[in-house]
Amino acid sequence: MDTLITISAGFAWGGLLAFIHFGGLWLSLTTMPRVARPAQWFYGCLLIRYGITLTGMWLALKTGPSAVVSACVGFYVLRMVLIPRLSNMKGYLWK
Question: Alpha-carbon distance 5 to 24, whole Å?
């Protein structure tokens, strides 16, 4: 029972990290045309997103191998769900 809880929590944790990571990417790309220095904005947001994602995966790794594997699976699954949904929204730059 403990392993099932760890795997479920890891999956949810990975999904939360993916939501923060890819939501932050979408937010930084949609606000980039309105900032004075877009390159600095993009790279600053990139460092923040990767810092949050890597710290979250490190915390999952401290929990155990099953938690980090399920967090990676949760991250990947939410990525596959979020990217098509965010790319169909109005206001994105690469269409």
Answer: 28
